[in-house]
Amino acid sequence: MRFEMTEKNSKQWFSGWQQAAISLKKIKQDELCNYDYEADIPMINGMLQWAFDNRIPRITSGLIEQQKFFTKMRKKQMMNPLFDAAMEIQNFMQNRKWAFCFIGGLAVIRWGEIRMTQDIDLCLLSGFGEEEKYIEEILKSFFPRISDALNFALLNRILLLSASNGADVDLSLGGLPFEQQMIERASLFRYSPNCEVMTCSAEDLIILKAFADRFKDWADIEGILMRQKNKLDLGYVFEQLTPLCELKESSEIVDKLHRLIEKENQL
After folding, report:
1. Dist CA 220 CA 146 (whole Å)
2. Residue 47 region, left (φ>0) first, then alpha (ψ -120 to 50), else beta?
3. Residue pLDDT, tens place only, 203-240
4. Angle at 114 between CA 57 and CA 233, to 5 degrees
5. pTM of structure
6. Is the dihedral of CA 158, 161, 167, 173 positive or negative?
7. Cβ atoms of residues 43 and 114 within 8 Å
8. Which one, of 96, 89, 154, lies nearest residue 123 by Cα?
9. % helix / strand / coil in the chain, to the nearest 5?
10. Please, which residues have CB within 8 angstroms of residue 61's CB and are 6 or more apart in sequence?
């Protein structure tokens, strides 16, 4: 049987495609807003275990570009290896009374859609000028992933580490007022009976993701918007994001976020 593409059936196909997209997105939104996190812990544990077992060691970090731009502004119970690594480095930070919070994949699991992550991302408030002191102290307890980790961190403001169990840890050296405020706004979240860590807020996670401006970051933002809905302080988001994007000379990011929010509000 041969099908002809007429104007009529083209419009019908396009109309059906549009409606299906709207319906499927509404279903996904309802699932995200109403899912039971506690019931999904075994699934999350399995996903993260698979990601850890199949990880490829990296000598770079998705946070490097972010920190390059930030620098310019200043001139086993339900425990998988990633949760274990997060607790290890959190205990290290807390014992020294250092200000920090987790960002990246762990924060996305808390605020958005459950997804795989193969490493731990966090931000340490080191300020500017004393980074080396922090780095040297950290390298006494954690393994560097590259040979010249100290100089790399001083240049890029990212310290590439491995936890004692081999999990990758990307540690961002924060010093901007935004990063300080993000850490002050952070709060504890219990991922499992033995894992409670300090993560950034949903709003600060949106700011970081929008600033990074990668395809997967916008997918994460969409999940956060769906799940958090009217709980977000969007005024704060744009207040912080706008000057960062001006610094990056990427004002289109702010417009893109406005459009995405407007789109979600229409559902």
Report:
1. 29
2. alpha
3. 999 999 999 999 999 999 999 999 998 899 999 999 99
4. 110
5. 0.77
6. negative
7. yes
8. 89
9. 60, 15, 25
10. 156, 158, 160, 170
